[in-house]
Design brief:
The chain has helices at residues 2-27, 34-58, 62-83, 91-102, 104-117. With 121 residues, it is mainly alpha-helical. The chain has one domain. It is elongated, with a radius of gyration of 16 Å. It starts with a helix and ends with a helix.
Length: 121
Amino acid sequence: METAAKCAWIFGVWNTVVLAVLIASAISGGTPSVFMWVRAGILIAVSPLFVRLARAAERGSTAALGRLRMVASVLPVAVIVVDFIPGVAPLWYALLQGIGSLVLVPVAVIAWRARREQPGA
């Protein structure tokens, strides 16, 4: 789970970089949509939750492990699918968000493997 916590932390850092790029785009005359601002803010806001869930799962919390497994499995797919709907976001933004979300794939793999390693699972 230590690796899962590190990946969750990287997810937060990456999304902070995405927000910085979004700010730079707006300053340089770009026109980021409300969707882009909201998505960037939400992904940064949930990042500490992922780290917290990974740490709790590391301490043996099965509830945290289940939540981490579910979110880390669904979120990357949801982000990629929504961002690549034509007209929702520019390609550069979709790529940045997609790359950042892929960092959660190892978290999902670790969480699913941890479930199988638990007694009675």
